[in-house]
Design brief:
Mean pLDDT: 77
Low-confidence stretches: none
Strand order of the largest sheet: 1-2
Distance between the termini: 29 Å
Shape: globular
Helix content: 55-70%
Structural class: mainly alpha
């Protein structure tokens, strides 16, 4: 067994993170499902569904998911309130996506850029966006979103080829889950990832 993969899995599970649990479940399910024969897939499906039900029964997961959907309309109360004692209000992941998508429809091609003065905001209360995925297409538009997907896909493609491994889709899905769960768009590390795919390869498919 791959010790590094085992340690990573244990670390994700013991964080009691909704994102971590869902990522482990989704990625492992895809990996197992895509590496089995058709006949075996029919047997595996009930086990995957049963495991999914067990995962959702964890209180910290269901509570978080229900809370996100229950409070998704909270931003409307804040937007249409003239004055509010709060200095800031977190929109939540679902609420952030809704607000960002409404902004995205106004500038779908090139987005708003890194400035936020033209994006939906309250006069008195700062609306805190926590959905990195919706922040990407709102900030950079459709062009930026395509560039984001291309750069990450190309990087994972080169990385896995150098290791003679498969799993680009799983890595890409994990990245999208991470971005949906946290606003990482302006972090230097994640922004640098946009250009890692430019690193050349040797003939033996190893990074220079």
């Amino acid at each position: 067994m791959n010790k590094k993969l085992l340690i990573l899995t244990i670390a994700l599970i013991t964080t009691f993170s909704t994102t971590g649990y869902l990522m482990v479940f989704i990625c492992y399910s895809i990996f197992i499902f895509s590496n089995t024969k058709f006949r075996d897939k029919l047997i595996i499906i009930p086990f995957i569904l049963a495991l999914f039900a067990i995962v959702l029964q964890q209180e910290f997961i269901t509570d978080k998911i229900l809370y996100e959907f229950e409070t998704k309309g909270g931003y409307e109360d804040v937007l249409y309130t003239e004055r509010d004692d709060r200095e800031a209000f977190s929109l939540g992941r679902v609420g952030s996506f809704i607000v960002d998508f409404e902004d995205f429809k106004k500038k779908p091609i090139i987005g708003y850029g890194m400035q936020r003065s033209e994006r939906t905001q309250h006069r008195w209360v700062k609306l805190v966006r926590v959905n990195g995925l919706s922040d990407i297409f709102t900030t950079f538009g459709s062009i930026g979103l395509m560039f984001f997907l291309y750069t990450y896909w190309s990087f994972y493609d080169k990385l896995l080829k150098s290791k003679k491994m498969k799993g680009r889709f799983i890595l890409m899905l994990s990245t999208l889950i991470c971005f949906f769960a946290s606003n990482l768009i302006s972090h230097p590390f994640w922004m640098s990832m946009y250009f890692v795919f430019l690193i050349p390869f040797e003939k033996n498919n190893k990074l220079l």
